[in-house]
Design goal:
Elements: E1 3-7, E2 10-12, E3 18-25, E4 33-39, E5 46-51, E6 58-60, E7 68-73, E8 78-83, E9 92-99, H1 101-104, E10 111-112, E11 116-120
Parallel strand pairs: 2-11
Antiparallel strand pairs: 1-3, 3-8, 4-5, 4-9, 5-6, 7-8, 9-10, 9-11
Amino acid sequence: QLQLVESGGGLVQPGGSLRLSCLASGFTLDYYAIGWFRQAPGKERDWVSCISSRSSSKYYADAVKGRFTISRDNAKNTAYLQMNSLTPDDAAVYYCAAGDCERLQYGLYDYWGQGTQVTVSS
């Protein structure tokens, strides 16, 4: 079965950190850019970050720039999103997707994960 599986979400206090993982199953991530998205209750889905297939290019939404870091390990078929200095505004379900960075920014993807919940609260 071809799928992306996110993990690493949870409850964290404001100012804390989490690292999300996105594992590809049934296909190789090498040929795909990986994007991260998030959606809070009652809000639209937002694009967060994207990394190219060989990690040569990384892109961030203004809201997370300087706090989040995207990375990948193709040998492990996994991408990551390191999130630091979290605030309640970062609370959402986070999704990863595989495709092309330019198309991913418009929500066009080849594969989509099931999401992992991030809660930021004291």
